Amino acid sequence: MENKILVTRSSMPELDEYMNEITPMWDSHWLTNMGPKHKKLQDNLCEYLGVENIDLLTNGHMALELTLQAMNLQGEVITTPFTFASTTHAIVRNGLTPVFCDIDPETYCMDASKIEKLITDRTCAIMPVHVYGNVCNIEEIERIAHKYELKVIYDAAHTFGESYKGKGIGSFGDVSCFSFHATKVFNSIEGGAVCFKDKQLGAKLYELKNFGIHGPEEVPAVGANAKMNEFCAAMGLCNLRHVDEEIAKRKAVVERYRERLEDVEGIQLNCIQNDVKSNYAYFPVVFEERLYGASRAEVFDKLAENGIGARKYFYPLTNTFECFHGKYDVTETPVALHISKRVLTLPLYADLALEDVDRICDIILGCKY
Ligand code: T4K
After folding, report:
1. Long-range contacts of 34-43 (CB under 8 A, 24+ apart)
2. I need a surface site. Which of 90, 288, 324, 331 has the fewest CB within 10 A?
């Protein structure tokens, strides 16, 4: 169908701006392996995100996976099933065991009041997700981590540019991992970053993203190849110049959605967190069929019939994936199960026209009876 509206659309600079950014690479022939664009983006991001240290990687997934490897963890990691496959897979691919904590029904992030009873003598870390850009209960997570000497690795894939109580969101936990995928508020085509406090950990990560090589004749670790290349870094440099403007436009889209859908019986909109400077990353809506009169499936299908691609982020829960068949008990995360069966994320990107938002809302409201 023509004029389809998808759940998101990548932000891109003007072509000329990108061409200018990559032109020097034709003189230098330096395309990857921590070149000048990589360095510049790293510096610019440190400042923009308000973090002390950052390292750039190929994507958000490798940021999570190599962070866990660099920390040399063993045992169980308390995490959330209400997330993208990446979070859980990063844990499992490191030989660690995910232990699923249920989520808060308002923020959809890990319910911090349920963490302590999941801690065993095998627990080594907590990996919460600031899902949809909603910020986790940072204080409580910090308190628990301190009490039980656990590492905290935030999956901050959705929170680019956010701050909590005036502090860059990447500065919380031992580590915070960002995604710069094409679908994110800020993209470098593919890309990711790890913000960290411990410089030794940073040095280890730097080696792990480059095959574990320490020097030309020294390879102390089994690493991967997760270096951000210069074309991606150049895209990041361009997009970073416009990201504030993009977030402002997203805000206008979100405000229009809220105006139209607020206070409609049977619809739960995303929470507003007072201490958070939001990036308006996603617009999740939970449909309670009993009160709304239409199920999530009916709304999804009606939107699709009209060329509108909403998505069921995050359904299915990761603890129900077939690759984990029989390993986890989904009844232990009932709130996550409830939300995942009812949530739809609506189209949201900077250039989404407000008339299109109105059309989407008309279709959604037309399903109500
Ligand atoms: N942790 C969390 C909590 C995450 O959500 C993610 C990724 C990660 C970790 C891992 O980070 P990365 O390794 O990806 O950096 C998308 C994204 O691929 C993924 O990055 C994202 N989360 C996830 C929530 O969404 P899909 O499979 O839904 O993407 P796809 O291809 O269906 O694209 C969605 C829409 O975006 C399309 O309908 C149109 C638009 N789009 C897509 C692409 C690829 C564009 O406008 N341009 C594009 O280039 O996973």
Report:
1. 34/210, 34/227, 35/230, 35/233, 36/230, 37/230, 37/233, 37/234, 37/237, 38/227, 38/228, 38/230, 38/233, 40/233, 40/237, 41/188, 41/228, 41/233, 41/236, 41/237, 41/240
2. 331
